[in-house]
Amino acid sequence: MKKKTILLCLLMASVGLLQAQNVKVNVSGTAADNTRMVYLYDDMRMEMAIDSIATRNGKWTFNQERPLNSLLLASTAKPQTDSSQENTVVFFADETVTTVLLDDCQVTGSRQSTEANRAFQGLVNCARSSMQQQNGSVDWKMKALSIMRTAVMDNLDNMVPVVFTQLIADALSVGELSRVLSPSAPYFDHPYMDGPKKTLERMKENAKKRPLGARFTDLTINDADGKPHRLSEWCGKGNYVLVDFWASWCGPCLREMPNVVANYKKYHEKGFNVVGISFDKQKEPWLAAVKKLGMDWPQLSDLKGWESIAGQTYGIRSIPANMLLDEYGRIVDVDLRDEALGETLKRIYGE
Fold first, then answer.
1. pLDDT in tens, 289-348
2. Hey, which residues does 23 pair with through a beta bridge?
3. Distance between CA atoms of 29 and 73, rounded to whole angstroms?
4. Is the pTM of this model over 0.85?
5. How far apart, in whole angstroms, are the C-alpha atoms of residue 163 and residue 147?
6. Neighbours of 67 (CB within 10 A)
7. Which residue of 199, 212, 245, 307 is surrounded by the most CB atoms within 10 Å?
């Protein structure tokens, strides 16, 4: 697979963020000495340039009216060619004077332009790294997801989330996606947010028995020795608790568990706790996974699989799933995974 094709898999949609108003775009740029032409695009597919600019002594300029907040690409790649070995940057059409250093793939201008280009360059590097991997592509895909998540969550006051949210909405927690889709966000009414809004509705429906702000529903379930315990033994007792729904037969659960373990070790001394509820049916593989993964927190299971009382109580239809409870037992967020869990705990406990 060509690197360009891989990058297009990461950025599938055209990102012409069309608005009614046009603005004058003022860009000055530099390129390597051997660069003769710079091409401007308004589509990630880079099939047709909106302008081609001859360089003079490695310098070029672009001054045109474009739709406000549309995303533009400046590249040394000709239209409809493999751009993987060429330099490309992205920036927004806004009223901020923009400088493009194509030889270094750097952009200075509005915050939304510099942040969008920072994320784009990270994704380009991920795509290139993927071609060098011989044993799968999980690492670079996870890194790409992390780059886009950071770009979205760090730029809720500008248009950057429009570019990436539709690609990562399913990977965000309900709380995160709710923050992204705040009605006060400048991009809230943008048509590219329609898909994420539907995703959020689906997430809330799936988690309707775990509504944000509600107090947890108590239940009784056995530990590994068959001794019954209530969630209220740990939850609502003055500390934050992650109630983690998982199973030893669940591949995504096992891949996520080292992240939970790392955050438990980092924040447990500050009061953070985890209560694991397994959807296993057999005791041996459940306890073997607990030991192998170093899950040093309370573990509960009624060994009824999907018929578990926990699944019925909280409407769990897929795992991994979780809910983070505050010191009063109120649900802070649900389905925190990957960096989302660590970032949330960092906001609570600090570094």
1. 999 999 999 999 999 999 999 999 999 989 999 999 999 999 999 999 888 999 999 999
2. 66
3. 12
4. no
5. 12
6. 17
7. 245
